[in-house]
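Practice problem. Given the sequence and the SMILES for NAP, write out the predicted structure.
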Amino acid sequence: MTSFADISVATPPAVGGDIQFDFTGKRVWVTGASRGLGRAIAEAHSRAGARVALTARTEESLLDVAEGIRKHGTEPLIVSADVADAAAVRRCVSKIESAWGGLDVLVNCAGISPVFQRAESIEDDIWRSVLDVNVTGTFNCATAAVRLMSRGASVVNISSIHGQVGMERMAAYSTSKGAVDALSRTLALEWSERGVRVNVVSPGYVETDMTEGLRGHPKWRQYLLDRVPVGHFATTDDIVGSVLFLSSSAGRYMTGTNVVIDGGWTAS
Ligand SMILES: NC(=O)c1ccc[n+]([C@@H]2O[C@H](COP(=O)([O-])OP(=O)(O)OC[C@H]3O[C@@H](n4cnc5c(N)ncnc54)[C@H](OP(=O)(O)O)[C@@H]3O)[C@@H](O)[C@H]2O)c1
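Answer key:
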C-alpha cells in the first residue's frame, strides 16, 4: 500500500485549474513535532515542498526529526518551547519572523493526555496541565502566529473525536478538545476578514505513543475497537492527508470546519 512517505508532490498535480497541493516556498510551523502525529505532519509538509519550523519542549527531541527533514532538501527551523508558556511561544514566533519574515501555515498539534481516570480522581495540577497545554497552548501559538500571517494563510488545530463524543475517564482531555473546537470556530470568524482560515482535524485513535497504554491493555483495546466500525486504529498516514488538504490552497473555501477522521466511530 502506498503511504504518504512514498508520495512526492514536488511537481503537484493541478486539480480543477489552479487548486494545488503545492507547498513550494510555503512556511509551515508545526507544534508537537518531535514524534507521533506532529512529526508525520511536519515531514509531509516538507516532502510537499514547504519550509518547516518544528516545536516541542526540548531542542534535543527535535534533532532526529530535523535530520530526516534535511535529507528531503529543506532546512528546518527548530523553535523549541513549552506551548503553555506564552512568552516562550512569542520567542518562537520572533525566531520564525527573523528567519522567514512571515508564516503561511500553523498546525497546532502539541498535546497531552496524561490521565485515564474518573473525573473525581483527577488531581488539580493534572487537570490544569491538560488545559494549559491543549487549550492555552493552541491559543498562545495561534494568536502569536497570526501577526506573521497574510491572506491565504491557514491554521489547522488538531483536536480529537473526544471534543464531540464523551468517553469515561477522559474528562480533562475531552474538555480540552471541546474547548479547542470552540476556540477554532471563533478564530475562524474573527480572522476571516484577514483571509486567514482556521480549521480543525479530529482524529479517532491513532497508533502513537499517546495511545500506547490503552491500545496495549486487553480490556480497553477491545473497548476502543468495538467502537470503530472499520475495525482497526488509524496510522499517522491516515490523518496527514486531511491536514495537508486544509493547510493547502485546495481547502481555500473551508474555514471554521471540523474534519473527523475516526474510522466511523462518530457515525454510530
Ligand atoms: N494519538 C491519537 O490517537 C490522537 C487522537 C486524537 C487527537 N490526537 C491529538 O494529536 C496531537 C498529537 O498527538 P500524538 O498522538 O502524536 O501524541 P504524542 O506522540 O504523545 O506527541 C505529543 C507531541 O506534543 C509535544 N508536546 C507535549 N507537550 C508539549 C508542550 N507543553 N509544549 C510543546 N510541545 C509539547 C510532544 O513533544 P515533547 O514531549 O518532546 O515536548 C510531542 O511532540 C495531540 O494534540 C493529541 O491530543 C491524538
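Check your answer against the key. Residues 17-209+237-258 form a domain with the Rossmann fold fold (CATH 3.40.50.720).
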